[in-house]
Amino acid sequence: MPPPTPATGSTVDVVIVGSGHNGLVAACYLARAGLSVEVVEADEVLGGAVSTVERWPGVRVDRGSSAHVIIRHSGIVEDLDLAAHGLRYIDCDPWGFAPAPRPGEDGPDGRPLVFSVDLDATCTSIEAACGAADAAAYRRFVEVWGPRSRAVVAAFGARPSPGALVRSFWPIGAPAAGRPRTPGGELAVDFLGSGDALLDRWFGSERLKAALAWFGAQSGPPMSEPGTAAMVGWVALLHDVPPGHPVGGSGGLTAALRRRLEADGGRVVLGDGAARLLVEDDDDGPHITGVETTSGRRIHATAVVAACHVAATRKLAGDAAPPALADADPPLGNGFGLVVRALTDAPPRYPGVPEAQSLQGLQLLCTDRAELAAAHGDWGAGRLPREPVPLAMSFSASDPTLAPPGQHVVTLWGQWYPYALADGADWDALAEAEAARLVAAVDRHAPGFAESVQRLYVQTPLELERELSLPRGNVMHVEMGLASMFGFRPTPALSGYRVPGLAGLYLAGASTHPGGGVSGNSGRSAARVLLADRRPLPRARVAARRGIRRALGRVGWGGPG
């Protein structure tokens, strides 16, 4: 939809800044409640980091996320009935694959680890590769951490107040099914401890620990940091609902959210983002009156949900930013990762492993946690990793809509690449060589992969900042360490999704609880807070508003308010 001209400004109840999935989730919940909603987006592409474009003729490539994990456990997809609006997930099953040690490395009999939804099949694979003791330990791990991870799901879906966190976590220690109470101290050790320590307590095989650590590290921090144990424990839930990839690419989620929003009378405008917030100050104090877009169009509203980076929100508020926002300076980190999108004539092929076992989910190409520690150490020193550690995804193997016959899209993720390099090197000059090194790292596990590559699109930390408006290339917006989570995210003063001192301004997106990744939780939580601050609309008025908006839409009216 082309942006309206400045003369055709509109009046709505709520403006959403940013069409990322959290912004669209918030918009959908608000529109469903009967509010008039407009989403404004500076990019010409819908969805922010949850989007898919035709990168090469006939080839659809994700710009950001590819595998969706948390949102499939949040209930949002079902609550908004996104299947009725075109969303269809392909389950990643098996959801994880870790190759056997490379030739010349120490290891058992050379069998891979295959993590399936079927727990019995997973334990059979672990027993063959790592031994019966680790297989039994993994089964028990899933049994213990299943309830704990469901508590994490509940905490992610709620506003991060201290009481809510206590209610989410500590009841799982109560006696159930004849089992003894889990001591609170043990829970504290597990949840506040490191992922590495948790893995060392449970398992003996370094290969198994490396695969689970690499999965957990996708949240950002290395598994040596305090508070990362829960990121490992999340694997227990994947035996209920695995990661999924939308048919047609990751953007299938945001496209379905847009259709759901428009069905409820909402509207999305691309290519005309917010330029500044409109604010008035009266006897009740400063309050939002709308948004001015880059085209000069004014959208009048009593509430704005800023579903963008918290630093971008601060800039939009300008001199009207209250101290809580003006002083917000959460840690952004020094970059996060490097992404290589490869067009190939074949998916990665691992020796002796059927494609059905290796290509459905996350290819966790790490056999020793020392590789992860070295890469993170290099990142901390502002250096490129001496040995890149790849994660590969090949969803075109199960989704033919992504590429023509005989071609495949393979996404390679390398974590802990610094945005600012200690030697001052230029990322634009380094991109091609670093992409080649990441491809070579995959080739060491899947010989012949490098020869299959036809085209590459490289997203360095600098390019991630340019293309997806991610400051310093941090896909999580703000660091995901323990000191920046829950009630500390993005800052303690802003953790409740409101901006104190500026009525009508709300926050959503990866800068807020529960952080990065595809979950939709912050969008839903922000919508709930906003709705709680408003007087509920009578049902008759809700129905009348929807009917009027739909009727006006049929005659070509341009605004939803």
Structural descriptors:
561 residues; alpha/beta; FAD/NAD(P)-binding domain; 7-stranded mixed sheet; 5-stranded parallel sheet; 20 helices; 20 strands; globular; disordered C terminus
Number of strands: 20
Low-confidence stretches: 173-181, 551-561
Tally of separate helices? 20
Characterize the overall form: globular
Structure, explained:
The structure is a single chain. The strands form 5 sheets. This protein has a 7-stranded mixed beta sheet with strand order 8-7-16-17-18-15-19. A 5-stranded parallel beta sheet has the order 10-3-2-14-20, covered by helices on one side. It is globular. Residues 173-181 and 551-561 have low confidence and may be disordered. The protein has 20 helices and 20 strands. The chain has 3 domains: 6-85 and 250-330 and 479-554, FAD/NAD(P)-binding domain, CATH 3.50.50.60; 93-242, no CATH class; 333-473. The protein has helices at 21-32, 71-74, 76-79, 119-130, 132-156, 162-169, 184-192, 195-202, 206-216, 229-233, 251-263, 310-317, 323-326, 355-358, 369-380, 427-443, 449-452, 461-468, 521-532, 539-554, and strands at residues 10-11, 14-17, 37-41, 52-56, 59-62, 89-91, 96-98, 113-115, 244-246, 267-270, 274-282, 285-293, 298-300, 303-306, 337-344, 362-364, 390-393, 408-415, 453-459, 505-507. By secondary structure, it is α/β, with parallel strands linked by helices.
Compact summary:
This protein is of the alpha/beta class. The chain has helices at 21-32, 71-74, 76-79, 119-130, 132-156, 162-169, 184-192, 195-202, 206-216, 229-233, 251-263, 310-317, 323-326, 355-358, 369-380, 427-443, 449-452, 461-468, 521-532, 539-554, and strands at residues 10-11, 14-17, 37-41, 52-56, 59-62, 89-91, 96-98, 113-115, 244-246, 267-270, 274-282, 285-293, 298-300, 303-306, 337-344, 362-364, 390-393, 408-415, 453-459, 505-507. α1 packs parallel to α19 and α8 (195-202) packs antiparallel against α9 (206-216).
